[in-house]
Amino acid sequence: MVRAGYGIFYIRIPQIYNSVIQTQNGITDSQVFLNNTDYYDRQVFPSYPNPLVSCPLYAANCELPESFTQGVTHNVSAFASNFVTPRVQQSSVTFEREVVDRTTVSVSLLNVRGEHLIRALDVNLLPPTALTYPIFDSTGSIFQGGYYKVDSFATWQFTRTLDCPWPPCINPLGRPIAQLGTIDEFQSAASSNYSGATLAINRRVAHGTYARVSYTYARAIDDGQDALVAGQPATVQNSYDPNGERGPSVTDQRHRLVVAFSLEPRPFHRGHELLGRFFNDWRFSSVMNYGSGRPVNATVSGDPNQDGNDLNDRLPGYTRNAFTGPDYATADLRVTRTIRFGDRYKLNLVAEAFNLTNRDNQRVAITSNGMVTTASTFVQSSVNANIAPYPGYYELPSNFMKPNAAYAPRQVQLAVKFIF
Q1: What distance in Å separates the CA atoms of residue 220 and residue 195, rounded to the nearest whole number?
Q2: Any domain includes 209
Q3: Residue-range definition of the domain harbouring residue 412
Q4: Are 45 and 39 in contact (CB under 8 A)?
Q5: 321: Cα within 13 Å, side-chain hemisphere
Q6: Cα–Cα distance measured from residue 172 to residue 164, given in angstroms and rounded to the nearest whole number
Q7: What pLDDT band is residue 231 in, cutting at 50, 70 and 90?
Q8: HSE on the CB side for 376, CA within 13 Å?
Q9: Residue 327 and residue 31: Cα distance in Å, rounded?
Q10: Rounded to an integer, what distance in angstroms lies between the CA atom of residue 328 and that of residue 339?
């Protein structure tokens, strides 16, 4: 038997995008950024308990003092002029054959392609410049002999000034439209592709027994199309190279094995009513899962590319989601005993165990951005490496793939159900 299907599905635009665009319009929302290490910012930096703004209780709006205007920015979010509705094309084909009585073998092929998916680019950035920073140990005192190259959106200052007493220093981020900060443009330019093949053996219910074994090999890649994470734009690392985001999806799992069975033995029939009362009406069912590891993104904190976004930086030399986390395996078991009271009433006693073997399913940190863990930190501080001065350095990547969390341990629950 052969089954096939194809469909095109259009995706509704989440309301959160409209909300972000309405609030981040460059007029109703503004921020003040002051750096206390900057000489000029320090002159107007408010000290506790003095408030930044003294605002009357029923004032319609409050204006900042003129001395703070150099730190005011207005962020803007908008849809691209050629924005279109995202869509998904899905196609599948299944070949199934009965090999023995009540037992079938099937092979299923599935492809899901996402088109015109949403991604965000900060379009208020100047072209980046390739800069090199040294790699130090975690204390910042021992040079490790290596360097990382990064496309930086901020330049270096080599002359001594009040806010740069020890050059070189990293200049403040300059933007083409200086009056505005980030301009996040939501584009329908990302795509995704999932391809998977599943081999399954099914034993249909016969004599109280059901069994299924399936193995799936799959691959999922995308451009990091999740443009909003908890309401905050998750822009690509380099707005001038958005295609560099192509990599494994956060849901990519190459191998998955599932074994399930249900057993309801009835060893005693007519003529053995007493024995049947105790040994019949039991049901044992279980599901066992094994899955290979999912992708992990080697992120870097400290905003080494100086684009004003500390969430989109990766370890130089690695693509998005370049590492693979720990695998996952679990076995769940359910035991049900049915006690009958005549033909109309029965009582079900249920015992369930999840992760029956109490396997330690380790994982790396999971945040709102997916499976990520910090591989390194960029420190903006003057250092010398091989006599040459630098305005910042990378900390040596530690064992960031070491699991620091785990999925749920063994859990057991009991239930009673009365049916009438």
Answers
A1: 7
A2: yes
A3: 2-29+74-419
A4: no
A5: 20
A6: 11
A7: low
A8: 23
A9: 43
A10: 37
Contact (Cβ atoms closer than 8 angstroms) between residue 348 and residue 414: no
Which tokens in the block code for residue 194? 């999932």
Q: How does strand 169-170 pair with strand 156-157?
A: antiparallel
HEC profile of the chain: CEEEEEEEEECCCCHHHHHHHHHCECCCCCEECCCCCCHHHHHHCCCCCCCCCCCCCCCCCCCCCHHHHHHEECCEEEECCCCCCCEEEEEEEEEEEEEECCEEEEEEEEEEEEEEEEEEEECCCCCCEEEEEEEECCCCCCEEEEEEEEEECCCEECCCECCECCCCEECCCCCCCCCCCCEEEEEEEEEEEEEEEEEEEEEEEECCEEEEEEEEEEEEEECCCCCEECCEECCCCCCCCHHHHCEECCCCCCEEEEEEEEECCCCCCCCCHHHHHHHCCEEEEEEEEEECCCEEEEEEECCCCCCCCCCCCECCCCCCCCEECCCEEEEEEEEEEEEEECCCEEEEEEEEEECCCCCCCEECCEECCEEEEEEEEEECCCEEECCEEECCEEECCCCCCCCCEECCCCEEEEEEEEEC
Omega within 30 of 0 (cis) for the link into 304: no
Short-list 107, 88, 278, CA closest to 190: 88
Split into its structural domains, the chain has a count of 1
Q: What is the pLDDT of residues 364-417, one digit of tens each?
A: 876 655 556 688 999 999 999 998 999 999 998 878 888 888 899 999 999 999
Tokens of 414: 């009991």
* Sequence-ordered list of residues with C-beta below 8 angstroms from that of 374, at least 6 positions apart, any chain: 299, 300, 301, 400
Three-class DSSP labels, 355-394: CCCCCCCEECCEECCEEEEEEEEEECCCEEECCEEECCEE
Q: How far apart are CA 317 and CA 313, in angstroms?
A: 11
Residue 119 resides in a domain: yes
Query: CB-based burial of residue 200 (10 Å sphere; 0-12 exposed, 13-18 middle, 19+ buried)?
Result: middle
Matching residue, tokens 């204390």: 139
Task: Confirm whether 65 is domain-assigned.
Answer: no
Q: What is the pTM of this model?
A: 0.83
* 392 neighbors 379 (Cβ within 8 angstroms): yes
User: Within a domain: residue 127?
Assistant: yes
| Mean pLDDT lowest among 15-24, 209-218, 346-355 | 15-24
